[in-house]
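[Meeting: bench + compute handoff]

Bench side (C.D.) handed over the final construct sequence. Compute side (W.E.) agreed to return the predicted structure before the next meeting so the bench team could plan truncations. Sequence as handed over:
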Amino acid sequence: MRRPMAAMLTLMICAANLYAAGNGLAGINEATSMMTSYFDPATKLIYAIGAVVGLIGGVKVYGKFSSGDPDTSKTAASWFGACIFLVVAATILRSFFL
């Protein structure tokens, strides 16, 4: 006798929770609009970080070139690759999510 009552009570609680939860479409739409509103400032921030990294890398490569270090080409290639990666990553992420 107690088992059917407990099952019925559990079923009523689950039904009430499902009714209160709704379909969640409004929450998903709000989250999507919030995420897309953050992409423009985030992309500009990544570009600014890329510019700072580029300037610092350029000074580092210039210093190595001026001192005659034989490792200059490797440093220049890694610096250039890092700058290209930041710009491409920001652009691809933006186009992927928007």
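W.E. noted at the follow-up: The mean pLDDT is 77. C.D. will use this when planning the next construct.
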